[in-house]
Sequence to fold (340 residues):
Amino acid sequence: MIEGIDEAAVTAWIRSKIPDLANPVEYDLITGGHSNLTYRCRDGRGQCYVLRRPPLGHVLESAHDMSREHKIIHALQGSSVPVPKTYGLCQDASVNGADFYLMGFVDGLVLNDSVVGEKVLANHRVALSHHVVNILCDLHEVDVDAIGLGDLGRKEAYLSRQLNRWTKQWVASKTHPIPEMEASQQLLAERMPEQIGSSIVHGDFRLGNMIVSDDRVEAILDWELCTLGDPLADVGYLLNNWVSPGEIEAPGEGDQSPTAVGGYLSRDALCDIYQTRTGRDLSQINYYRAFQHWRLAAIGQGVYKRYLMGAMGESRDVDLEKQKLGVTRRAEAALSLLEA
Fold:
């Protein structure tokens, strides 16, 4: 028995989508996620699939929308943006108590930190860097209307909408004062640049949300924060997570970045490739970097509160003080970039 999965009902539903599913089907929680829960489903022949469902317990309004996440991945099938194959979405609460969807299992490395980052061969890191930034360019060039994602969200006023959303998240999740959050929010509102154009915005575009094999990205994961809006938000986020060896510019994050092992393209090189391919101006990219640190702090605070409430499941083990400190450090990083 695994928490969050009604094995008999879920297996029957999967069999309705995959008739040759072989018994027995085993489920195990894939570690590393801090929001939606991800399970590996392995059938009797060793064929693997992946199931995604919301966290257990109370969640914030509009968060953890499985149908939205499934819709995005399904729409990108066959595009130049690599995503897993989709098998179906279940919105019948009698099956598993919450919506969930099933997708294919993609083999490879998930580069969650610099320890796993060492497993990427040194002679693959530059090519992998190129592939990552070119996928981001491809994603931002997708015709959303042509693939049925034109109604995913408003295309304009992305930054103001995001500031409003994550300010509400911060207020709803606040458990202790962090003055840097309010100070950053004020500066972000005052200095907001004009949005030029719109695109899909992944919202969490980093190596830790990709499955990598050698010098290639096999799949982009974790689309729960995806929307439409300002593409430069993704660029700022990627740059924050693209840390050089020995860098302390992003406190609390640098030691977690797979690029900290060295051998990858520099941030400037990534920006040059992106600007050349897309024609977009990155002269204000530090604003977007600050915004993403602040947004990540708001998200991190939500995760921290859910852990306190036990919403991530009894099997979850987390250092609450480290999580709490990480929120503060991200808020400080945002303010530092804005005050530079």
Observations:
- The first strand starts at residue 26 and ends at 29.
